[in-house]
What we know:
Elements: H1 3-9, H2 20-48, H3 73-88, E1 100-101, E2 111-112, E3 119-125, E4 132-137, H4 138-146, E5 152-158, E6 165-171, E7 181-183, E8 198-202, E9 212-216, E10 219-220, H5 223-233, H6 241-256, E11 261-263, H7 264-268, H8 271-277, H9 284-297, E12 301-305, E13 308-311
Parallel strand pairs: 3-5
Antiparallel strand pairs: 1-2, 2-3, 4-8, 5-6, 6-9, 7-8, 9-10, 11-13, 12-13
The structure holds zinc ion.
Amino acid sequence: MPQVVENFLQFDFCNEERHFFAFAGILDEIGVMLVDIATATAETSRQRELPKTAVTALDLQMDYSLASRFTSACQKARIMTETWARDNLYCVNCESEHLYPTPTNTQVVDFTCKECSAGFQLKSQSSPISNRITDSGYEAMCRAIRLNQYPNLIALHYDRVNWSIQNALLIPSFGFSLAAVEKRKPLAPTARRAGWVGCNILLTNIPSDLRLSLVTNSKAIEATTVRKQYQGMSKLKSLDVASRGWLIDVLNTARSLNRQEFHLHELYSRDQHLSALHPQNLHVRPKIRQQLQRLRDLGLLSFVGNGIYRWNTPRIN
Ligand SMILES: [Zn+2]
């Protein structure tokens, strides 16, 4: 029981004249306490009125009423997916439950987190996410990866019949190597931007450890699970871009063996593939061994002995 209430109950009313000022002081304290309670109650009800957060309720239904203002299917899809992302996506780099749209015409980054400044690019499509995601200019993409400036990428797959989110994939900003960037054919001479060269993101060249599912087959994955996966790989941030590229490529090659345990010789048999990805390096096999040690230090692998390695985690997808 609060001390002020105890004082009130124990007050000697028989000597009220003698204790008048003490009694007035108790009443004053009770008044302050009631104001505190009223303020706290108002704050609680205000919090209840906040929009549902991504963490507690990821709503996969898009708002079709937004589309009535537009005539083209492309514009309808854009307004609905961007609004959905604004209202539902959360930050994976920190605990923030909201992402905020960047000003119109901001290059590459569509959303940012106000808590940690992490950037996110959104790519939406009505067809299922396959091995390729169409992205921006080839040279700009390669430069962004080399300069460590590429944001987190979120790929959305939505249904055009009921306008709901079917799948959503997140590739962390530190999950790209140049091997993931595929050059497209230059635009035809008749095109408005004749000669311009775009690129595709090759998901097959991104390890499963770095392809994080936010939504799978119309089912949202718990935010705590996604954040844990993201944080588990975030040590890659501390590597310089060239070292990170090697690590990602060896990790992806080793994962593609599709075995819980593998021998060093099996990776050596893929050295031509890795050599093609890193033509400037003439010592591919020592580089492979170095990356395996790094993967072990990251906690992804254990060294069993006699050239055998074992994954500590199963394939994620
Ligand atoms: Zn954040």
